Amino acid sequence: MFKRAFKYYQSFFLLMLIVYACSPTSAYRIRSFLFDGVPDPNEVIVVNIDSTNNSIDSTENNIRLTKPDFYKHPPYAKKECSSCHDRGAMGKPKLDLPELCYQCHEPIERQYPALHGPVSSGQCTMCHSPHQSKFENLLVIEGRNLCLNCHEEESITGKGIHLNITEESCTKCHNPHGGHDKFILQKETCFNCHENKKPVNEYQFVHGPVAAGECNLCHSNHDSSSENLLIIQGNNLCLNCHKTSDIIKSEPHLANKKQMCTRCHDPHLSNNQYLTLNLKKDS
Ligand code: HEC
Ligand code: HEC
Ligand code: HEC
Ligand code: HEC
Ligand code: HEC
Ligand code: HEC
Ligand code: HEC
Ligand code: HEC
Ligand code: HEC
Q1: What is the pLDDT of residue 10?
Q2: What is the pLDDT of residue 107?
Q3: Which residues contact residue 115 at a Cβ distance below 8 angstroms, ignoring those fewer than 6 apart?
Q4: Distance of alpha carbon 201 from alpha carbon 178, whole angstroms
Q5: Phi, psi (degrees; rounded to nearest 5) at 219
Q6: Does the beta carbon of 237 lie inside 6 Å of ligand 6?
Q7: Residue range 160-173: average pLDDT?
Q8: Residue 148 to residues 134, 154, 167, 236, Cα–Cα distance (Å)
């Protein structure tokens, strides 16, 4: 399978090498997964017989083989090979990526202001099989390993990530295609789970960066070793944006120079002017 696939991929692979060598992304590893996930349509499907499972349907007394579950791409399942390949040149896509996919799918750049690297370079098949896959969404690999194929594990997970939600998937926070900024996050990402930080009407006062949905101006989601995932601990977090000279002008500050800002202010939301804490609604 590998050898045969290699023939088809040889030129594609060389091209990829050139692209990788010339781009700032050359540090990313190119793995053999390039060859996986695109099952040969002529390949004999190996049938799994799960010994613990009922492979024999006793009611009908027929042997029922449990086939691996494949998610099939509709045009492939319907044998509309010609929507992607010219007859006589089967195996060679008839258009470049991503145009091949955009014959039927809405171009991704229309959906997001910022695109993920491999999407902007049209490498859809680095993540999706065009034919079929045993994973949902025709993915070539499942879960975080899809991402860690290109992103160095050490630099992403080295300091830990926001609790252990990455055990589920990186896509709990990142959109694999694009987002509102280069970090390919949705403004709503954090609110999916932290609804109580959402600037809703019951809070009259919302802190500037929270109103902008920019949680990452204060939180570092890739460093779970820091308390509350803060990028800077203590008052320097606040003084990163607020000038000390402005702060010390007012009465309460002059009298409490050494105190933590968060002793008196909520960093997120409040129904008190100046985000002060005492009358803060319970969140
Ligand atoms: C949605 C587009 C699409 C459809 C439909 C499609 N293919 Fe493909 N096919 C591709 C792409 C893209 C590649 C190259 C894979 C890559 O770049 O990773 C490919 C690769 C191949 C290859 C060579 C690689 C391999 O799998 O070993 C063969 C053979 C092939 N296709 C046959 C078919 C046949 C037969 C059909 C119809 C039953 C079909 N394809 C339908 C897009 C498609
Ligand atoms: C000939 C039309 C056609 C082309 C070309 C095509 N697709 Fe699709 N694709 C479909 C249809 C139809 C569906 C099912 C409806 C939907 O989800 O939009 C689908 C669904 C998908 C899905 C979701 C599958 C799931 O499990 O929900 C993915 C991922 C996908 N396509 C990727 C691609 C990629 C990558 C390419 C290019 C290599 C491509 N498609 C090219 C028609 C096409
Ligand atoms: C970095 C990996 C990656 C790349 C590159 C990628 N995708 Fe996806 N795609 C995903 C994942 C993961 C999902 C599953 C949905 C989710 O988790 O948000 C998905 C879902 C989809 C779906 C079905 C759901 C939807 O959003 O409509 C389509 C269609 C699709 N991708 C098409 C494409 C096309 C076309 C390209 C190339 C322009 C592409 N993808 C490039 C990872 C990728
Ligand atoms: C095919 C390789 C590939 C895969 C797979 C991949 N990425 Fe990427 N990713 C890239 C490239 C290339 C960039 C652009 C890097 C740059 O511009 O410095 C990038 C950029 C990013 C960025 C923005 C980083 C920055 O500093 O601009 C994030 C966040 C990201 N990827 C997350 C993910 C997640 C989450 C997944 C899995 C769903 C994933 N990536 C899968 C190649 C990949
Ligand atoms: C809790 C949400 C969350 C999860 C889960 C998450 N990220 Fe991130 N990621 C972020 C945010 C927010 C940023 C923006 C900068 C920051 O906060 O460090 C980011 C930044 C990045 C960057 C660019 C900056 C860098 O450190 O190079 C990459 C690449 C990245 N994430 C990949 C991943 C991968 C791969 C996974 C899964 C293993 C993942 N992320 C899981 C929220 C998350
Ligand atoms: C999939 C759900 C989920 C998503 C998405 C998510 N979180 Fe969380 N987060 C949690 C859970 C669960 C906890 C622990 C319980 C709690 O304190 O609410 C938590 C805790 C936290 C904490 C406290 C950590 C500590 O050390 O005590 C911070 C800060 C945080 N999240 C920020 C964010 C930010 C910023 C984002 C968006 C980039 C985000 N979260 C996205 C589920 C999520
Ligand atoms: C201006 C900086 C700043 C911004 C922006 C910010 N936070 Fe925080 N966050 C903090 C600080 C400081 C703490 C530590 C708690 C404290 O001292 O009151 C914290 C604590 C948290 C906690 C854990 C404790 C709690 O209150 O539940 C969560 C969850 C959290 N933030 C989520 C978010 C989310 C989601 C966003 C984006 C909507 C966000 N934060 C934006 C500064 C910020
Ligand atoms: C990323 C930049 C940033 C950081 C970090 C930051 N702030 Fe702010 N803060 C703002 C912006 C922007 C406003 C809105 C300014 C305006 O509306 O005039 C604001 C407004 C405020 C206000 C209300 C001022 C008013 O006149 O209504 C208070 C109080 C405040 N911040 C306290 C804090 C505290 C305490 C911290 C640390 C936990 C902090 N800020 C960290 C950017 C920041
Ligand atoms: C002892 C409680 C307390 C502490 C500690 C405190 N503040 Fe305040 N802060 C207040 C009160 C009360 C106001 C309302 C101002 C007024 O009524 O004049 C205020 C107002 C503000 C304002 C808006 C008006 C102005 O004076 O500029 C900002 C911004 C602010 N604080 C930031 C900070 C930062 C940053 C820190 C930490 C370095 C901090 N505060 C520490 C109580 C405190």
Answers
A1: 46
A2: 96
A3: 108, 109, 177, 178, 184
A4: 29
A5: -105, 135
A6: no
A7: 79
A8: 19, 9, 13, 33
Q: How far apart are CA 28 and CA 10, in angstroms?
A: 20
Ligand 1: does its nearest atom lie under 6 Å from the Cβ of 83?
A: yes
Kindly report whether the peptide bond that precedes residue 98 is cis, defined as omega within 30 degrees of 0: yes
Q: Is 236 in the pocket of ligand 2 (CB under 6 A)?
A: no
Answer yes or no: is pLDDT of 84 > 90.
yes
Beta strand 178-179 with 114-115 is antiparallel
Give the tens place of pLDDT for each residue, 24-50: 333 233 332 333 333 433 333 333 333
List beta partners, residue 206: 269
Q: What is the pTM of this model?
A: 0.85
Query: How is 53-83 classified by DSSP, letter by letter?
Result: S--EETTTTEE---PPP-EEPHHHHTT-GGG
For residues 197 and 124, which has the higher predicted lDDT (pLDDT)?
Answer: 124
6 C-beta closer than 6 A to ligand 9: no
When pLDDT is averaged across residues 115-142 and rounded to a whole number, the result is 95
CB 157 within 8 Å of CB 221:
no
Residues flanking ligand 5, CB < 6 Å: 144, 147, 151, 155-157, 161-162, 165-166, 170, 172-174, 183, 185, 216, 220-222
Tens digits of residue pLDDT in 251-262: 889 888 889 999
222 lines ligand 4 (CB under 6 A): no
**Distances in Å between the alpha carbon of 184 and those of 115, 152, 166, 189?**
7, 17, 16, 10
Atom 3 of ligand 3, nearest CA residue? 127
